[in-house]
Amino acid sequence: MEFTNSPLVTYTKLSPNHSGQRNHDIDTITIHCVVGQCSVEVLGSIFAPESRQASSNYGVGYDGRIGMYVEEKNRSWCSSSAANDHRAITIEVASDTTEPYAVNDKAFAALLDLVTDICKRNNIKKLVWSTKKTDRVNHKNGCNLTVHRDYANKSCPGKYLYDRHNEIVAEVNKRLDAGEPEKSDVLYRVQVGAFKNKVYADAQLKKVSEAGFDTYMVQIDGFYKIQTGAFSKKENADAMLEKVQAAGFNAFITTKGGQAVSTAAPVVKKEIKVGSTVRLKKGAKTYTGGNLASFVYNRDHKVKEINVDRVVITFNNIVVAAVKKSDLTLVE
Ligand SMILES: [Zn+2]
User: Fold this and answer.
1) What is the pLDDT of residues 219-254, one digit of tens each?
2) CATH code where residue 206 lies
3) Distance 173 CA to ligand 1 centre (A)
4) 236 lies in which domain range?
5) Fewer CB atoms < 10 Å away: N or C end of the chain?
6) pLDDT digits over 128-157, tens only?
7) Main-chain dihedrals φ then ψ at residue 185, nearest 5 degrees
């Protein structure tokens, strides 16, 4: 996995107290109490000396500011468990010095922001908490929050934060859900004509596809309709509409599809797409100019990926090379 750090950090003082790169993907969060209403700077100075033999990835100060002491890619020394700290992001939160080790509102609000950010960047779709230690340490049922007391004889994160884990989960999951793009089955289609008579529809289809648009015909409500593109995002349909209009066609956006109609002659301009069968032109190089084995010019390949003019081709599902689109000819 690719490691990043939180953009919410406003103070960084990297501690020497860590084990280097993690041996596990980040899939867990462990929240601790500092036992002291300290600032991110003070926490940084605590983790600075090697003699301290302790650290955390992040700290939340009493004032709600966020500090970083060990980058996310590295394993912090925080939870008295190597296995836990290899997979967890550890967070120290400024707290009172006695049970229940209460955290103030500013720090708690910042903690929610930080946990949400960690989940988003590390693709943790949902936080799962359990009040059972066996669930937590075994990551049962997707449990991905652990606490220091699971691995050492201590109160950490204190009764205050421990009891608020349910609330943390509910709030963070609400934010993660809100960030999900809306799921919609609606497709926006750009319509470039509707005809009772199929002859006219065929003629229009030909004109539109000759103008370079991917065009198809559907039959709906007794009409043959010429459409181009079917987009789940309205703005993509808007962009296509502009192009079609710029090419001189009367068009509008509709969400109505219909039965596909086979046209007399397939006049749709064929082009190389993902899934196409292609052949390399003789002597073609890789996308970056490298040489290819001579046998590749004598066999068909499948297109796996296209990024503008860079095309990844495969043979028997195995990637052969990335090549220039202009070096390919379409077989089918
Ligand atoms: Zn702790």
Assistant:
1) 887 888 898 888 888 888 889 999 999 988 988 888
2) 3.30.70.1070
3) 24
4) 188-260
5) C
6) 999 999 999 999 999 999 999 999 999 999
7) -95, -5
